[in-house]
């Protein structure tokens, strides 16, 4: 037996190969049990289950009248080579259809097909001609074939052999508070010719760039969707707006075939595992962005590809007239709190954790998971609570995008202690402060200190706040300081798509410029926001390429831009090597410094006599801060985290002088901090290499020294705790 999760689950071998006659005699073949001769571990009761003598096809459908498996010899086959019918009398157990087909092996291609009522007002959309993707397919192969006879032919499902030599790999189990997330797109990371990799745009290409990720210092990659999604339209044509981001799932259990270097059906399974194993060997965790809120089938005008043709009214939220509720903004909404769908999601998450060693999940539009089967937001929704309590997921990180497309916004109130959240308030408040908006000093300080207003009351910690200033959805950091208006014309939607309220600025010129004054200010703002992000309490998330000024040319919704607009241009690492050095040094500091990633909220008290308070706030003149004044400046003093709190090394004291104003200003060291030996760590107004001192050997300040700070700049100082505190 094997042990997974937090130690609460013992996973036993399941029943293995039987003949079809044997399985028809005993419904217990669906349940976990031990076979004395065969030791095959598999956690999934559904899908195409590979046995020594053949394949067992297990699928749920409550309302189907008949069902069959279509077998193919090639991904290009328009018609199946064999059609095998389920026997409704012998192959159906309740609502589970299960049939063993001897002689089939790994690599077998197949579809499902069903007969049943087509009664849309009653929620039924069965189509006896539709070729259906198995909801539990472990891999897909091929593409949508041309549709010249009215029959949509989606990618084919692949029977997969899940065996893989992990070389002893296990989950890294890094504490959330010690995590630095790097959000990236598998294809976009290496697809550019400038990447110089042997396998561009693939899982193997990511492996080739692991030395870069390791040198950057991040601890986890958050991969944009890698679940299967359409590469071409369902009619087999190249899409006018190709699906680049991947938020349009076809098969939740399958890694995307488009990111594989090989061509053999199912090869993406092995290559994805190779990537995870290699990232783990480099000390980097893997978090998946998962989309359990809608699918590629769309609304009533969309194709029947999988769920619609198996049990439409179970898998989707429907109106009373049978039309689709649309809380996702994408045409349909997955019925996540239906018991059948809830089971599918559980099994899917366990599949990725158990079979792929995934370290965590970011749930896209997670507020949809808080809606009951009628679409109403409910407290303690069963699915959200069960994910948090699932013992096999106990070692994983679970992160919510705590809003949806229908107006729900649950940042700070999404769920319980297991759930972290993308903190949209952090993004907006930091952007507004550095842009120079009025009355932003208080919100900025709250976000810098870990967003206690959002998370403390419910018993959560600063690490439950995933802090970010940019993400895939919106501007890159360089574009945020280069464009006042979005420029999405290339998307073909007349610039109507994308967010209009971005809190961005161009500082005098829209887009690229040769004006040195504008470029210096833009670079300073980039460093201000990177610096703020890496010294804030909580968990920082960096958008891939922000460390070297990746640009999307002002496009803040590049969902369909599978080209240079979205791809990582590796030439920028050299062109912006000074900024890259600044970013790397910040990340290294955060990894080393427990004072900026404390596990409890700051309260301004001394933890022990003689120590500085954990946080103190001051005005620019060094006097205690007057929060009633509308000022664009503040000073934050963090008392070094003591050994008893960190468990390893005492933290340094950290002093931050933050000036968001548009005019120069004098700053002073507060009286209580003047006796400490403050060394400059970074100064966003200085030019490289004097903008950051990664070895903490910056200039030593004088006790009553005044600092003339230019507009929109930030200085950070560090001081060792007195005595033998660090070890």
Description:
This protein has 727 residues and is of the alpha/beta class. It has 3 domains: 14-158, Immunoglobulin-like (Sandwich), CATH 2.60.40.10; 180-234 and 243-487 and 500-556, Alpha-Beta Barrel (TIM Barrel); 595-719, Golgi alpha-mannosidase II (Immunoglobulin-like), CATH 2.60.40.1180. The chain has 16 helices and 30 strands. The chain has an 8-stranded parallel beta barrel. The protein has a 5-stranded antiparallel beta sheet with strand order 6-5-9-13-12, with no helix packed on it. Strands 24-25-26-30-28 form a 5-stranded antiparallel beta sheet, covered by helices on one side.
Summarize the structure.
By secondary structure, the protein is α/β, with parallel strands linked by helices.
SSE map:
Blueprint: E1 2-4, E2 9-11, H1 20-25, E3 47-50, E4 54-60, E5 66-72, E6 82-85, E7 92-93, E8 96-102, E9 109-115, E10 118-119, E11 124-125, E12 140-141, E13 156-158, E14 181-184, H2 186-190, H3 203-208, H4 210-216, E15 220-223, E16 227-228, E17 251-255, H5 267-281, E18 285-290, H6 308-315, H7 339-356, E19 360-363, H8 382-389, E20 397-400, E21 419-422, H9 424-435, H10 441-448, H11 452-455, E22 465-467, H12 477-480, H13 516-535, E23 539-543, H14 571-575, H15 577-592, E24 616-618, E25 633-638, H16 643-646, E26 653-659, E27 665-668, E28 679-683, E29 706-709, E30 713-719
Parallel strand pairs: 14-15, 14-23, 15-18, 18-19, 19-20, 20-21, 21-22, 22-23
Antiparallel strand pairs: 1-2, 3-4, 4-8, 5-6, 5-9, 7-8, 9-13, 10-11, 12-13, 16-17, 24-25, 25-26, 26-30, 27-29, 28-30
Helix pairs in contact: 9-10, 13-15
